[in-house]
Amino acid sequence: MNDVVICLFASAGFDKAAQGLTGAGRWLANELGGELRAIVIGAEADALAVEVARIADSVLIAAQSELAEYQPETCLRALTVLCRDITPRAVLLANDTYSQEITARLAHRLGGSAVGDVVEVSLEGELVRVSRQVYGGKAQATIELKRKPAVVWLRARSFPPAAARAK
């Protein structure tokens, strides 16, 4: 499939990082000719899901109990099951501690490729290509992700927000 999944944790809300994540996801989904699907995780996921639904084609809510704290293994299992059902081409995560913690593990469980701290996403034929800074920001590395899905966490404020879809 050519769908793109974006994963957002409700605790951060719809801040500039989340807006950039939706913008990058919308662009990539349009370029691939697929749909943008969002997975919102957390106790207060409903409010964030309303905001994300203005941009994404579909939104899945993985709600946690109000009393439960973030559990990485629980979130990872939920994302693995949901992503296996969707079979996305790319999974994009925000620049938060939760996303950084699970990106590589999610890619491993899905049989895909992982990279973090991405500042640019592009397509080269069938392959997703990303850029990130290396050597303390003195150089830019371009990485071609050959295994699918490409599981990537994006640097905050590196991508412009997406415009709301027509109703």
**Global morphology:** globular
> Can you list the strand order of the major beta sheet?
3-2-1-4-8-5-6-7
Helix content: 25-40%
The N- to C-terminal Cα distance equals 25 Å
The poorly predicted ranges are: none
Mean pLDDT: 92
Largest sheet data: 8 strands, mixed
Order of helices and strands: EHEHEHEHEEEE
Number of helices: 4
Structural class: alpha/beta
Number of strands: 8
Round the Cα radius of gyration to an integer and report it. Answer: 15 Å
- β-strand percent reads 25-35%
Question: Could you name the key traits of this structure?
Answer:
about 170 residues; alpha/beta; 8 strands; eight-stranded mixed beta sheet; 4 helices; about 30% helix
Provide a descriptive summary of the structure in words.
The protein is an alpha/beta fold and 167 residues long. It has helices at residues 16-32, 45-52, 72-86, 97-110; strands at residues 4-9, 36-41, 58-62, 90-93, 113-124, 127-134, 139-145, 150-154. An eight-stranded mixed sheet has the order 3-2-1-4-8-5-6-7, sandwiched between helices. Helices cover 32% and strands 32% of the residues.
Give the helices and strands, then pairings.
Elements: E1 4-9, H1 16-32, E2 36-41, H2 45-52, E3 58-62, H3 72-86, E4 90-93, H4 97-110, E5 113-124, E6 127-134, E7 139-145, E8 150-154
Parallel strand pairs: 1-2, 1-4, 2-3, 4-8, 5-8
Antiparallel strand pairs: 5-6, 6-7
Helix pairs in contact: 3-4
